[in-house]
Amino acid sequence: MGTTNYVSLSLATALQRSLDMAAHNMANASTAGFKTSHPVLEAVDPTNSGSPTEAINYVQDKGIYIDPSQGSMVATGNTFDIAVSGDAWLGYESPDGGVAYGRDGRLTLNNEGQLVTTGGSPIVDVSGTPLTIPQEAGTSVSIAIDGTVSDQNGGLIGQIGMFDVGNPSLLEPIGNGLFGAPNGVNPGPTTTSTIAQGYIEQSNVQPVVEMIHLMDIQRSYERAVKLMNNENELTKQAIERLGRVV
User: Fold this and answer.
1) What is the pLDDT of residue 41?
2) Separation CA 43–CA 51 (nearest Å)
């Protein structure tokens, strides 16, 4: 396989990943708190020639970029629905017992009285412990802008945790709109954001932009495949001519 084919193959592989992520973004355009993600691609010269005219640049997938921009807030009037305004992330109990992070504020009570997402993940307080609403409090609770949860008599129940994750692109998706923090990343409580009760944050996906992005990726992928086919055809013709000479 020639150099042209290797370069085109690296591009096609990267574009396939871009296509998958763009489709994933589109599929979650109506998912509350969803954040758009895109691959980070980089041109790499394995020869380290240092010459812009002699370098052979391959496309390398370097990771994921998460767009943390705020989605629009929509009023629902539901007691347990919450939306974060600011850069903070909500904390949830992950399947392995640790803490995962996200922005999905569509909450309800499970059979144990815990505040959970529609996917069943318990939301945690500032200490990382699942927040439980006493049975006698029912649905007559208030949630202050700092996440403090009180019953109808003003009694303190707990405080919903808001966490500073630093660089969101370091988080690793684990499903159901949740992200895990890799080793070395230790999100901590923050007071720089606020919570609005009776609201949810919509996805920050812009469907029209993503649709245009999908079309651009598809065209680029087709060009990369066509370039490989052209290179293969030239190689085939060269072999046939050499065979005739012999």
Assistant:
1) 74
2) 14
